[in-house]
Amino acid sequence: MNLDFSTLAGAQDFLWQGFKYSLTLTVSSMVFGIFFGTLLAMARMSSIKPLSLAAAGYVNLFRSVPLVLVIFWFYILVPLLTGVDVGAERSAFLTFAIFEAAYYCEIIRAGIQSIPRGQIAAGQAMGFSYGQNMRYVILPQAFRNVVPLLLTQTIVLFQDTSLVYVVGATDLLGAADKVAHRDNTLVEMYMLVALIYFSISFALSQAVKRLHARIAIVR
Amino acid sequence: MIQINNVSKWYGEFQVLTDCTTEVKKGEVVVVCGPSGSGKSTLIKTVNALEPFQKGEILVEGVSVGDPKTNLPKLRSRVGMVFQHFELFPHLSITDNLIIAQMKVLGRGRDEAMDKGLKLLDRVGLKAHAHKFPGQLSGGQQQRVAIARALAMDPIVMLFDEPTSALDPEMVNEVLDVMVELAQEGMTMMCVTHEMGFARKVASRVIFMDRGQIVEDCSKDDFFGHLDARSERARQFLSKILQH
Ligand SMILES: Nc1ncnc2c1ncn2[C@@H]1O[C@H](COP(=O)(O)OP(=O)(O)O)[C@@H](O)[C@H]1O
Ligand SMILES: [Mg+2]
What we know:
In chain A, 82% of the residues lie in helices and 0% in strands. Chain A is an all-alpha fold. Chain B is an alpha/beta fold. Helix content of chain B is 38%, strand content 25%.
């Protein structure tokens, strides 16, 4: 088999744009996903039944349907509902944020549930309101306990962002795919992309492992 | 200061508290003792509404704890509580443990809160540890910080739930010393403890609980001085814990 990477130089900028989009999508979905996931987790554990049921329904729905399907739905639904054609790239931001929140929610919920009851009581006894107790006592400890899990989920998320190519968005894979078809370098491009995803994901997961070990010592 | 009137509480079918009535007057030190599982923790936690109750009434300086309209965070901020397992916030330094509620609940400025916190830390003999984290301190030290943290809120009453029972024996006294000092300064206290030496020294009254009921509620002198007048259950309990 002859591999031809000579077209790579010309495609560099285009691939770089795609890569930047993949990263932006990952980071924004992580930030929003953790924020909304935290609210969802609090709602799920609320003693207000309708609230906890609604949150549980949301989480179970998104954890039970394939991501690709949700990407399609949002791609079709968002323009239909809003009347604005936001385009594949921007619709993906919404899709991932909403989808990932369901996964982050469960991680954060586990984190909150790992906090001993005595800590919650101590916060209450100091006179903290529910919100203050969450903010100053429970969530900081809960997050600390699940940082490795949150990061691992983010690595999965980074890989999953490649699915947006199905609606024609130009992420790293999408960009590579377009270059590959233009230059007829399918094997080369897919190898390159695989290498990039692997290097980043593997390096991050090693870092998470080391972090995990360090947290374990501190505790 | 605290009035507990005919309080009953159930966990499902199981009745934890049965018709408990007592009071803690200003400046009094009331010691609560009784066998494990008799409801001591539950009773003391109803006072600052950490445990809800189904029947009866509790008043803290005239404010009804069970009333749904009562501002519980505000009430709790005036009632200091010390737990069996210290419950310092492990992610915060000792200093932050001492000032966070002062700032966020009482609205004090950082300087004022710090000033107060460090003074109290000094008072419990731990000023040198201000920058450390709870995990770096011994159990006895953590418990003393926990007492300082509660005192920083200028509580009108202090509740203690077996503050020394999770400690290694050699650390019990450093915590009891702080408590004795507090009592002698006139702090109103309700203490669940089996430290009868402490009770002898500073208690105004002793309450003995068994199976969710207040079986004895009398002055310290009556409790220790006229054992023959005490109930069978109280005598048995006392003879058990006074042996060692
Ligand atoms: N959340 C709970 N659910 C059911 N039973 C409980 C709960 N908490 C405490 N109990 C029971 O209530 C009784 C009194 O407990 P507690 O107040 O902790 O006793 P003490 O402090 O005197 O040892 C015990 O029999 C205990 O098993
Ligand atoms: Mg107890």
